[in-house]
């Protein structure tokens, strides 16, 4: 599909998803109340629900979805695998350990977010240090180091859940499954998304060349080593920002870039912004459904993304060989 057509369509879908998220919920809000909440100070209950609860959550969902999709697109180039995932290098495991430790200590949501980001950075630095052997960083070495580190984080998470107090257990499990119930206005994460997208688009041409293989990229003047390091740093920071806001939300960074690639091709000048729009739209719809499926109770949004992602992943995996993909 032409980029001139794809990007406007995705932008309209993103806008539609935000409107749907503002209207849907245990308390139905009409379109007029949504418009009033967006254009004037909230006065009644309906406009307060939109302005103070649903709008921050919907925007957070869009930003987190965009962060995960963009990180997934970069990780798929880094590992030269169109089915790679932004969590594959253990970033979410480090964030989860730090966040759960903070919850066990009884600190509030602010410190959970701060420590989750710090844990993600520690995990990133560990992979960065441990994967550097003779010949520098290679996709295989990065992947194996990340998988082993993720297994170690998983063991720590299991231990922490086993010894945690019962009063903290529900919140910890919701965070691990992905939860946007306590998300506020995503100012810093939105800035992270904008900066990450700008940096990734600036690297779009080298990314196109690197996707064809290191040898061809080097022959055309690309410094593969520094580019690989830059991709890893950007992707890791994007993943850390997403995990900090919404916990560990699976499948968005896996299926969205791959699905967009099947529709729009592998040109990263189009793929990257399209993935951000599609990832944000998907997560906004999923989070809205998580609020209404068993209303007035709410599901962790990670449950919905998994239920959507599993069949879509299997479908894409089945179609992959016809497109020349693994």
Helix content: over 70%
Secondary structure: number of strands: 0
- N-end to C-end Cα span: 22 Å
CATH architecture: Orthogonal Bundle
CATH class: Mainly Alpha
Low-confidence stretches: 321-326
What distinguishing features does this structure have?
326 residues; mainly alpha; ABC transporter involved in vitamin B12 uptake, BtuC; 14 helices; 0% strand; globular
How does this model look, in words?
The protein is mainly alpha-helical. It has one domain (3-323): ABC transporter involved in vitamin B12 uptake, BtuC, CATH 1.10.3470. The chain is 75% helix and 0% strand. The protein has 14 helices and no strands. Helix 4 (91-104) packs antiparallel against helix 5 and helix 12 crosses helix 13. The longest helix is centred in the N-terminal third of the chain and has 34 residues, at 45-78. The protein is globular and about 65 Å long. The two termini are 22 Å apart.
Give a brief outline of the structure:
The chain is mainly α and 326 residues long.
Annotate the secondary structure layout.
Layout lengths: L2 H21 L7 H9 L5 H34 L12 H14 L4 H22 L8 H25 L2 H12 L9 H16 L1 H7 L3 H6 L4 H23 L5 H13 L3 H25 L8 H19 L7
């Amino acid at each position: 599909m032409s980029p001139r057509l794809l990007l406007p369509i995705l932008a309209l879908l993103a806008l539609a998803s935000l409107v749907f998220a503002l209207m849907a919920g245990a308390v139905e809000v009409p379109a007029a109340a949504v418009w009033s909440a967006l254009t004037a100070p909230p006065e009644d209950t309906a406009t307060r629900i939109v302005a103070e609860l649903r709008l921050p959550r919907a925007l957070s969902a869009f930003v987190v979805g965009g962060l995960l999709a963009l990180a997934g697109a970069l990780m798929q180039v880094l590992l030269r695998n169109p089915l790679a995932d932004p969590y594959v290098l253990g970033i979410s495991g480090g964030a989860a350990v730090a966040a759960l430790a903070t919850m066990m200590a009884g600190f509030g949501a602010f410190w959970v977010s701060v420590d989750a980001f710090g844990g993600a950075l520690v995990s990133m630095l560990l992979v960065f240090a441990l994967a550097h052997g003779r010949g520098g960083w290679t996709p295989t070495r990065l992947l194996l180091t990340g998988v082993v580190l993720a297994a170690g984080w998983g063991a720590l998470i299991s231990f922490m859940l086993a010894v945690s107090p019962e009063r903290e257990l529900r919140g910890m499990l919701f965070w691990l499954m992905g939860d946007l119930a306590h998300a506020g206005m995503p100012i810093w994460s939105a800035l992270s998304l904008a900066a990450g997208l700008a940096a990734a688009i600036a690297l779009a041409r080298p990314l196109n060349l690197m996707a064809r293989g290191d040898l061809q990229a080097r022959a055309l003047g690309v410094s593969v080593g520094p580019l690989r390091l830059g991709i890893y740093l950007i992707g890791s920071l994007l993943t850390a920002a997403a995990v900090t806001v919404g916990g560990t939300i699976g499948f968005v960074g896996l299926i969205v870039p791959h699905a967009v690639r099947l529709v729009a091709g592998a040109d990263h000048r189009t793929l990257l912004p399209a993935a951000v729009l599609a990832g944000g739209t998907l997560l906004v719809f999923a989070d809205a459904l998580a609020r209404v499926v068993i209303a007035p109770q709410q599901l962790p949004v990670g449950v919905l993304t998994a239920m959507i992602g599993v069949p879509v992943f299997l479908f894409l995996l089945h179609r992959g060989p016809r497109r020349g993909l693994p």
